[in-house]
Design brief:
With about 80 residues, chain A is mostly helical. Chain A has four helices and no strands. Chain A is globular. Chain B has about 400 residues and is of the alpha/beta class. Chain B has 13 helices and 15 strands. The two termini of chain B are about 20 Å apart. Classes of the chains: A mainly alpha (about 80), B alpha/beta (about 400). Chains A and B meet through helix 2 of A and loops of B.
């Protein structure tokens, strides 16, 4: 069973975006690696963040340190 | 065997063209006498004098998953489809030795279909509207990069941008890489997607497009119609191809390229330069001009450029000028610009396969002494073909193909 923290609104919004992007993965969790497990590269990561936040482009340098789903949720949380 | 001059053969083809995405469909188009160029309906063409172009049906790109497609411009998408088809056609599920396999692509305009909306958003709403994929998708080398990633190629690869001679030079240099022992397998060809508002504007303002029909070597010749598409060939060392029992389509027996000042490439200087590279390519192939069965024309489709090409061929072929059949598929598919010469290679291979030369639909009343194949296909065995290519940048190139 997924340990994905779907209860948090931002996380479920992210989850929906990943689904819309056809990014599939069984057992999505905080530890899931963006690049190695989901094949998300730096450009797609920017697109994901911009889609979650309706066109806002994130700081590319800060995104360099976002490597897991958990870190991405924390990053998105910080943008709210 | 001298590894510095190994014979190189074509073992597979892949194509995504207006009106054709298989060899049989292309041959049908060419022998039908029709053109796949049609009125442009993707964007308003008011104010453009040239309103017909060749476009690829959307269905041809549907095999690419959305997640892959979204990060590329159209010309790279076309190149991926063609590259996959080419490798499958050559009998490869995976490339056997990736470090010994590369890709050379000809292109002249890069990618604007993905770029234009971003630039528009930038001006209207700020940088938030710029796609994160623009950086890796607009430049001419995108197909080289995406094909390498998609097919796992690790060998030296390159993009050639020499105007309408790009793909000829790409194929020639790719063949040389194998001949000289630097690679065993090469994908080579071209991809172009010029039917977007911005690129079409370049084409319009270049003055090279016809407001009417594309009629090379006729008194009405006043330019070409452009087209989008991709053709990728698989080249292999002949000894390796034979050892694995590959189907061999032809040998790339000769190649030469040269350069003149850009303002001269379509005049008498350019004619001499084109004759020269043709001669060099024939010498490398060990073929006398009179032995040629086929010439694939550059066919720029203007009075001046066509006259220069006719003069080049007359100089090269001498007394055999009126006996070597010449043709071009460019009016049928539209001119694929940086990718056009790869189409020419493919069409020559089809002529070899079918023992027939497809016609070029043109009145041909300004062909000089050339033997132009027009109206209907001409049945005759084709075992040696010369392909001409010129670029407005001043590049001249010639390829010689030989049936094995």
């Amino acid at each position: 069973m997924s340990t994905f923290p779907a209860a948090q609104p931002i996380a479920s919004h992210l989850y929906q975006v990943l689904k819309d992007f056809e990014i599939e993965y069984d057992g999505l969790s905080s530890a899931t690696l963006l690049r190695d497990d989901l094949d998300i590269d730096s450009a797609e990561l920017v697109e994901i963040v911009a889609t979650v936040y309706g066109g806002r482009i994130p700081d590319g340098k800060a995104l360099k340190y976002v490597t897991t789903i958990g870190e991405l949720i924390a990053f998105l949380d910080g943008l709210q | 065997m001298n590894s510095r001059n190994r014979p190189v053969v074509v073992v597979g083809t892949g194509l995504v063209l207006p009106g054709a995405h298989t060899e049989d469909q292309l041959w049908s188009l060419l022998t039908s006498g029709d053109t796949a160029t049609a009125p442009v309906d993707r964007f308003p063409t008011d104010g453009y004098t040239a309103r017909h172009a060749g476009v690829v049906a959307e269905a041809e790109l549907s095999c690419l998953p959305r997640r892959l497609r979204k990060q590329m411009d159209r010309f790279a998408q076309l190149s991926i489809v063609a590259a996959r088809q080419a490798l499958e056609n050559a009998g490869f599920a995976d490339v056997p030795e990736p470090e010994r396999a590369g890709v050379y692509v000809g292109n002249m305009f890069g990618g604007w279909q993905i770029t234009e909306p971003s630039l528009r958003d930038l001006c209207q709403h700020g940088y938030g509207g710029v796609s994160p994929y623009v950086a890796t998708s607009w430049f001419p080398t995108a197909p080289q990069g995406q094909i390498s990633i998609d097919r796992g190629l690790k060998g030296f690869s390159k993009t050639v941008a020499t105007d309408t001679a790009s793909a000829a030079v790409a194929v020639g240099y790719a063949a040389r890489a194998i001949a000289e022992g630097r690679a065993d397998l090469m994908l080579a060809g071209g991809a172009e997607a010029p039917v977007t508002p911005y690129t079409y504007t370049f084409c319009q303002t270049s003055g090279r497009m016809t407001p009417g029909e594309y009629l090379p070597f006729s008194t009405q010749a006043d330019g070409f119609r452009v087209a989008e598409g991709a053709v990728i060939l698989v080249l292999e060392a002949e000894e390796v191809a034979r050892a694995r029992g590959a189907r061999i389509l032809a040998r790339i027996a000769g190649f030469a390229t040269g350069h003149v000042r850009s303002g001269q490439v379509f005049d008498e200087q350019g004619a001499r330069a084109l004759a020269r590279v043709g001669r060099l390519a024939l010498v490398e192939a060990g073929v006398a001009p009179a032995e040629l069965d086929y010439v694939g024309l550059d066919a720029q489709g203007t009075l001046v450029a066509d006259r220069a090409e006719a003069a080049a061929l007359a100089e090269l072929l001498g007394g055999a000028t009126d006996r070597v059949p010449c043709t071009s598929a460019k009016p049928a598919t539209g001119h694929l610009l940086g990718a056009a010469a790869a189409v020419d290679v493919l069409v020559a291979l089809l002529a070899m396969r079918h023992d027939a030369i497809a016609p070029m639909q043109t009145p041909a009343d300004a062909a000089g002494a050339l033997d132009l194949v027009c109206d209907v296909p001409r049945s005759r065995p084709v075992s040696t073909a010369l392909l001409n290519a010129r670029g407005a940048d001043g590049t001249t190139a010639a390829l010689v193909l030989q049936a094995t």
